[in-house]
């Protein structure tokens, strides 16, 4: 396919979002929104850095690229609506494999009633996918990292370390869905953004959410630094899936603290509002666990500590970091 045939192939036959006036087909998309704040984010995925054919088929590449962006929307407490895709296409990617990438994107986008409204296509030496996402949130209700305060409860959704463990299994060459650890592999290939859970927390006046893309050591440090508070995590409280227990204690610890890409949420909330978190958990079927607390200390604010084996030590900001 040439560029124009390709655009025709991915163009939606109809719109899912009522605020969309014009999608793909002109130089730019047009939407109209009068009563909510607009939230946007972008992520870029590069072949052999963020994905490879050793761990994912083309469908999973597309699914995961959009899922990562949707998770950013969940962390802001917002509802995703639109996405744009700029893609660098190398010669070794044929039409069929490329369309499978978009099938993966379309599947998860459809789950959240999202419209593909534009993007760009160019040729290059390796596949690069850049997804820009746009969402809406009630005015003044976007969730910021700088809002944690003394006495807050620190919590996490789901279980942590699964995606890193799944990547480890896939890199070992085990890809059959019927074989062991299929749950962990799926957690790496097809993560579940926590949009529905986050949307249920609109009545909570002060709330911090951060998506676990680079490991909770990184994500909790971002909250501590932005809010100028001290966070203490209890290692034994970190939620762990039973499949993770098949690996060594060192592997479990490394994946849970530093693995990342689970796209779960870590957050803080005033203790008085903890019942709202439990209600949202039950209503949306989202597991939620208390994993720590927020305090203030002029000497330690901006830092994260880990309580483990009756010993408290500083948890350094570590995990996957680009350009390191």
Features:
60s Ribosomal Protein L30, Chain: A; four-stranded mixed beta sheet; globular; single chain; Phosphoribosyl-aminoimidazole Synthetase, Chain A, domain 2; 324 residues; alpha+beta; 9 helices; seven-stranded mixed beta sheet; 2 domains
Provide a descriptive summary of the structure in words.
The chain is of the alpha+beta class. It folds into 2 domains: 3-138, 60s Ribosomal Protein L30, Chain: A; 145-314, PurM-like C-terminal domain (Phosphoribosyl-aminoimidazole Synthetase, Chain A, domain 2), CATH 3.90.650.10. Helix content is 31%, strand content 26%. It contains 9 helices and 13 strands. It has helices at 3-10, 58-75, 95-111, 162-171, 182-189, 195-199, 216-227, 249-259, 274-284; strands spanning 20-22, 30-31, 36-46, 79-89, 115-123, 128-138, 153-157, 208-211, 230-234, 265-269, 288-295, 304-308, 311-314. The chain has a 7-stranded mixed sheet. Strands 3-6-4-5 form a 4-stranded mixed sheet. α3 (95-111) links the parallel β4 and β5 (115-123). α2 (58-75) packs parallel to α3 (95-111) and α4 crosses α5 (182-189). The longest helix is centred in the N-terminal third of the chain and has 18 residues, at 58-75.
């Amino acid at each position: 396919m040439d560029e124009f045939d390709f655009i025709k192939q991915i163009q939606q036959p109809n719109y899912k979002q009522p605020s969309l006036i014009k999608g793909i087909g002109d130089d730019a998309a047009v939407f109209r929104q009068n009563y909510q704040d607009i939230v946007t984010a972008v992520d870029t995925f590069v072949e052999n850095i963020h994905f490879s054919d050793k761990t994912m088929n083309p469908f999973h590449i597309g699914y995961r690229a959009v899922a990562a962006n949707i998770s950013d929307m969940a962390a802001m407490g917002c509802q995703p609506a639109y996405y744009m895709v700029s893609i660098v296409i190398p010669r070794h990617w044929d039409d069929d494999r490329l369309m499978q990438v978009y099938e993966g994107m379309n599947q998860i986008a459809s789950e959240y009633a999202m419209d593909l409204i534009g993007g760009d296509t160019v040729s290059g030496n390796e596949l690069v996918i850049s997804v820009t996402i746009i969402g809406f949130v009630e005015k003044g209700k976007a969730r910021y990292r700088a809002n944690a305060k003394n006495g807050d409860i620190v919590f996490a959704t789901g279980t942590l370390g699964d995606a890193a463990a799944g990547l480890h299994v896939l890199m070992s060459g085990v890809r059959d869905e019927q074989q062991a650890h299929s749950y962990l592999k799926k957690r790496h290939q097809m993560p579940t953004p926590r949009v529905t859970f986050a949307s249920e927390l609109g009545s909570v006046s002060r709330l911090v959410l951060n998506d676990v893309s680079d490991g909770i050591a990184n994500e909790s440090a971002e909250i501590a630094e932005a809010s100028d508070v001290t966070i203490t995590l209890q290692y034994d409280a970190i939620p762990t899936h039973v499949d993770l227990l098949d690996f060594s204690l060192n592997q479990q610890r490394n994946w849970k603290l530093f693995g990342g890409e689970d796209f779960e949420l870590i957050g803080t909330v005033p203790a008085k509002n903890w019942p709202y978190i439990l209600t949202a958990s039950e209503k949306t079927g989202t597991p939620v666990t208390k994993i720590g607390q927020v305090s203030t200390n002029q000497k330690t604010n901006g830092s994260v500590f880990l309580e483990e084996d009756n010993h408290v030590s500083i948890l350094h900001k570590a995990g996957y970091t680009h350009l390191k």
